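In response to the reviewer comment on reproducibility (Comment 2.3), we provide here a single inverse folding case reported in full, input and output, so that an independent group could reproduce the run without further information from us. The structure tokens appear first.
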């Protein structure tokens, strides 16, 4: 188990968080540029020192500001793979991977053995005499991982390991990297800003924003219960924050949502009890989160007489045709269309997902007024 706690400032940027990572699993740090992801890796590695904090791995303390413990980076059993790999262009694959071992002045025989084992783990056996320029982007990435693994680390730190690859190569390398991490069974902390990569690699996902933890949990936690518009946008759902104003029944409630400069709107939703059964859940006046699946929103040219509890009239501000790609092929339009509607009473858009056929039938275009509707049972409110 890895635990890290940091409270420090770097210029005007302040980072304060407590992080845990399960032994033998991959924990993904997800967030926008400038959220503090790489800073956390550098603090864990000892390349930066926080004003206050500690780093402990499997019961061994490597940094503790209160006890004045600070193990130098080179003495920590941590492997670090940088975003741009930092391979020495004039050295062969063997020499790049052996670099850290030679710094430790290990015997030649042991160096040869451990480099061979590391290259075998990343499927690069037989390429040991090539130079980085003679390798593909994916192969260069695996050399960087082998260089970290050859030191037999207890913790592996990966900083955007796929970002230096082109789109085509990235798709091909993802599964290979997943296989390597799965077979290694090393406690790993990986940084990415790609939600898909967080889902593919993360046993636990930690979402950072402005130097603090916004949300953490497994894939299902983020998919079903986002707690910010950033996460909701990543998972592709409509997200609102509001206050519970009424409980119509045990299951149905009314949530009052308000944003800057506009009057509040009320949305009827299904109240999801996430707390222990002994607790009655959120009370009237308390803040709640709410999500609505874009596929649950119907669009019409006139107010519908359907059973939908939530109906909003607004202007279409964007029509986006969705693309998919399979088996590394070029992206293609798959028939899904996302329509963003700005209700007249708020600046919080509603995103509906409909078919291309429905788009054509309704003759939708940006600037057109439309009705967006959804049932209370299609909106989930939770705290």
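Designed residues, in position order:
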């Amino acid at each position: 188990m890895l635990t890290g706690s940091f409270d420090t400032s770097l210029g005007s940027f302040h980072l304060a968080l407590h992080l845990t990572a399960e032994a033998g699993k991959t924990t993904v740090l997800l967030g926008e540029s400038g959220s503090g992801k790489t800073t956390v890796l550098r603090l864990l590695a000892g390349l930066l020192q926080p004003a206050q904090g500690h780093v402990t791995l499997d019961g061994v303390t490597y940094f503790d500001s209160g006890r004045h413990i600070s193990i130098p980076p080179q003495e920590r059993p941590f492997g670090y793979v940088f975003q741009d790999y930092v391979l020495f262009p004039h050295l062969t694959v063997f020499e790049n991977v052996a670099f850290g071992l030679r710094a430790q002045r290990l015997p030649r025989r042991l160096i040869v053995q451990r480099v061979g084992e590391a290259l075998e783990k990343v499927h690069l056996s037989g390429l040991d005499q090539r130079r980085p320029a003679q390798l593909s982007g994916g192969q260069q990435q695996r050399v960087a991982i082998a260089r970290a693994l050859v030191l037999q680390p207890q913790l592996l730190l990966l900083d955007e390991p796929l970002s230096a690859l082109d789109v085509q190569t990235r798709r091909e390398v993802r599964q290979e990297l997943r296989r390597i991490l799965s077979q290694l069974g090393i406690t790993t902390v990986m940084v990415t800003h790609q939600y898909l990569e967080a889902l593919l690699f993360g046993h636990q996902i930690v979402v950072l924003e402005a130097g603090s933890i916004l949300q953490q949990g497994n894939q299902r936690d983020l998919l079903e219960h986002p707690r910010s518009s950033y996460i909701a946008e990543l998972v592709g759902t409509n997200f609102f924050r509001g206050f519970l104003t009424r409980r119509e029944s045990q299951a149905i409630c009314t949530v009052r949502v308000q944003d800057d400069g506009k009057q509040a709107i009320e949305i009827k939703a299904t109240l999801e009890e996430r707390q222990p059964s002994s607790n009655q859940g959120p009370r009237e006046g308390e803040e709640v989160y709410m999500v609505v699946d874009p596929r649950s929103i119907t669009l019409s040219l006139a107010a519908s007489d359907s059973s939908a509890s939530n109906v909003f009239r607004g202007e279409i501000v964007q029509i986006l045709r969705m693309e998919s790609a399979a088996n590394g092929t070029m992206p293609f339009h798959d028939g899904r269309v996302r329509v963003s509607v700005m209700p007249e009473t708020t600046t919080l858009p509603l995103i509906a997902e409909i078919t291309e056929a429905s788009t054509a039938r309704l003759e939708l275009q940006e600037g057109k007024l439309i009705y967006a509707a959804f049932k209370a049972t299609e909106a989930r409110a939770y705290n």
